[in-house]
Amino acid sequence: MRVLMPVPDHDVDLTEVAVPWRLLTDAGHQVIFATERAGTRPAGDPRLLTGVLFGRLGASEEPRRFYDELTRSPEFTATVSWAELVPEEYDGLILPGGHAPGMRQYLGSEVLRQQVARFWALDRPVGAICHGVLVAARAREASTGRSLLAGRRTTCLPKYLERAAYLATAWRLGRYYRTYPAYVEDEVRAALTGPDARFERGPRVLAARGTATDDSAAFVVQDGRYLSARWPGDAYLFGRRFRALLESGAR
């Protein structure tokens, strides 16, 4: 099957891109990357490769290796443009996250939001992780003008986790961990009808991450054909559950 993954030119979270890509391609599916302009070679947040602060808080070893493999793959350079997407040509859509400044190109694009809304109307699998949930929350149904997520159960980057990362690093990195003045959770909750019933924060985490063999620290929320996750620590479970959703044809 063909899965579309839009990304910005740079600063995407490499774990949230590379882990689902690896799991899907290993299963025989094709991942097509989309950037604002066709043919752009996207790049992950470089701090996540070397460690955000004193070599810590970066991506884990295996996702870094997956990302290195991804950067050498043909699909990472043959990107299609957001404006020229034909949603009907894809079987699934993944909206990855990231928090560094370059993400605003992707999170703030009205063109991309319109394309996401068109794909959503096809009733095919959509997955969003971390800040990627903002793209779906900001996109609007053409018929109602409501957020795509208004009537859905969802998770996203929890406010406590975003705030903790910001407070721990602001003295050195400024607003690196604060993409927007509003916290991701606050904006996503505001898009929901009945947020207290529909928003799911999941178990509290600060460092423990899910891995290729252990999902005990991971958390995702599935509502029909929509799947969401909180942060890079959920990427393996998110990738496996999205693959199952894609292959099952669940709606």
Question: Can you tell me the overall shape?
Answer: globular
Radius of gyration: 16 Å
User: Roughly how many Å apart are the termini?
Assistant: 16 Å
- What low-confidence regions span 5 or more consecutive residues with pLDDT below 50? none
Oligomeric state as shown: single chain
Number of strands: 9
What class do helices, strands and sheet pairing give?
A: alpha/beta
Question: Strands of the largest sheet, in order across it?
Answer: 5-3-1-6-7-9-8
Helix content: 25-40%
The helix tally amounts to: 10
Strand content: 5-15%
Written as H for each helix and E for each strand, in order along the chain, the element string is EEHEEHHEEHHEHHHHEEH
Mean pLDDT: 94
Sheet with the most strands, sense and barrel status: 7 strands, mixed
Kindly describe this structure.
With 251 residues, the chain is of the alpha/beta class. The protein contains ten helices and nine strands. Strands 5-3-1-6-7-9-8 form a seven-stranded mixed beta sheet, with helices on both faces. Strands 2-4 form a two-stranded parallel ribbon. The longest helix has 15 residues. The model has no long low-confidence stretch (mean pLDDT 94).
